[in-house]
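Bumping my old thread because nobody answered last time. Still need a sequence for this structure:
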C-alpha cells in the first residue's frame, strides 16, 4: 500500500456525480439517504415509492433539480418497469441502486407477553395474509427491482471506464477516459435490518424472516453479479426515526441499546457516504450493522 498518497476526506466520502435510485425515500431512512447524497454531490437521485406526495415534498425540500420523485410499487413488475423507463428518459446510467422500501408486517410482539399457550397460538396465527405482502415488499422486491436496473448499472460501469458485460478479469477500456483513482464499480445496496439476526421478537416474525432473506439475497447478488462487475452490499439498521417507528421509544436503557438512544441522521448520512464514496470501493458482499450496539445485548446470530 502506498501510504504516501494524500487522503482527501471530501473526495473519499463523496457522492460527486453519482446517479442514484432509492426505493422508499419520502420518509425515514430513505429520506436521510436522499438528503445526504443530494447534498454531497450526487447528480441525480430518483425516489421510488407508492405515494407521490411525500416524494414531491422531499424533492422540493432537498433540491428539485437533483431529486426526482417517481411513483412506483416495488411489488409490481409493471410498476417497476415503468419507473425504469422514467429513469432511462432522464439519464444514461445508474451508479447506485438502494433497495430501501420496506414494511413491518404482522406484529408478533404479544408472544413475549402471552400468559397461556392458547395466547401464543392466537398471536402466531393472526394476520396470516400479511406475511405475503411483507415478503413481496421486503424480500422478493430486492431481486425484482435489482434485476430491472441491471442494464443501467452496467452502463454506470461503462461511464467509469470499466469494460462492460461478463468478464474474467476486472479491467478498464483503454479508449475511455476515467479517473484512475476511482476504483468503484456499480453497486446495489439493500437495506435489511438487525431483525435479520435478532432472535427476540421486536417487530414480527414475517419481518424478521423477510429481512434475513433480504440479507441473504444481498450476499447472493454479490456472488452471481461478480462476473458482471456489479457489487452488492447490505445495511442492517437498528432503531432509527421514521414513519415505521413513529410513536415508539427514542431513549433506551443500555441493556437494550448500549448507545442509549435511537440512531440519528448523521449516523445514516456517514454510513451511506462511506459506502457510495471511493471509500467503499473495496466493499462487496458486506453487511454493515448500524445499531448503537443493540445486537450485542440481545440473543442474536450475528
Ligand atoms: N427505522 C428503523 O428503525 C429501521 C430499522 C431497521 C430497518 N429498517 C428498514 O429501513 C427501510 C426504510 O424504512 P423506514 O424505517 O425509513 O420506514 P418508512 O419511513 O416507513 O419508509 C419505508 C418506505 O418504503 C416505502 N414502501 C413501502 N412499501 C412500498 C412498496 N410496495 N413500493 C414502493 N415503496 C414502498 C414507503 O413509501 P410508500 O408507503 O409511499 O410506498 C416508505 O417510503 C425499510 O426497509 C425498513 O425495514 C428501518
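Sorry it took so long. Here it is:
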Amino acid at each position: 500500500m502506498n501510504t504516501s498518497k494524500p487522503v482527501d476526506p471530501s473526495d473519499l466520502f463523496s457522492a460527486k456525480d453519482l446517479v442514484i435510485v432509492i426505493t422508499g425515500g419520502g420518509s425515514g431512512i430513505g429520506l436521510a439517504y436522499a438528503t445526504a447524497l443530494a447534498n454531497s454531490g450526487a447528480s441525480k437521485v430518483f425516489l421510488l415509492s407508492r405515494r407521490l406526495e411525500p416524494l414531491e415534498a422531499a424533492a422540493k425540500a432537498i433540491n428539485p433539480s437533483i431529486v426526482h420523485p417517481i411513483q412506483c410499487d416495488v411489488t409490481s413488475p409493471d410498476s417497476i418497469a415503468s419507473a425504469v423507463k422514467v429513469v432511462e428518459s432522464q439519464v444514461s446510467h445508474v451508479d447506485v441502486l438502494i433497495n430501501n422500501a420496506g414494511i413491518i408486517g404482522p406484529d408478533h410482539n404479544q408472544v413475549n407477553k402471552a400468559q397461556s399457550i392458547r395466547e401464543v397460538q392466537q398471536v402466531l396465527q393472526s394476520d396470516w395474509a400479511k406475511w405475503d405482502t411483507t415478503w413481496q415488499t421486503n424480500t422478493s422486491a430486492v431481486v425484482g427491482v435489482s434485476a430491472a436496473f441491471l442494464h443501467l448499472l452496467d452502463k454506470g460501469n461503462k461511464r467509469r471506464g470499466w469494460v462492460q458485460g461478463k468478464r474474467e478479469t476486472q479491467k478498464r477500456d483503454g479508449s475511455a477516459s476515467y479517473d484512475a483513482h476511482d476504483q468503484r464499480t456499480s453497486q446495489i445496496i439493500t437495506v435489511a435490518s438487525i431483525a435479520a439476526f435478532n432472535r427476540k421478537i421486536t417487530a414480527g416474525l414475517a419481518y424478521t424472516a423477510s429481512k434475513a432473506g433480504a440479507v441473504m439475497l444481498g450476499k447472493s447478488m454479490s456472488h452471481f453479479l461478480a462476473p458482471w462487475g456489479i457489487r452488492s452490499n447490505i445495511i442492517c439498521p437498528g432503531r432509527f426515526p421514521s414513519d415505521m417507528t413513529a410513536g415508539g421509544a427514542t431513549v433506551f436503557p443500555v441493556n437494550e441499546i448500549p448507545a442509549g438512544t435511537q440512531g440519528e441522521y448523521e449516523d445514516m448520512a456517514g454510513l451511506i457516504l462511506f459506502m457510495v464514496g471511493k471509500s467503499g470501493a473495496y466493499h462487496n458482499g458486506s453487511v454493515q450493522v448500524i445499531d448503537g450496539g443493540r445486537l450485542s445485548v440481545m440473543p442474536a446470530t450475528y
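The mean pLDDT is 96. Let me know if any region looks off to you.
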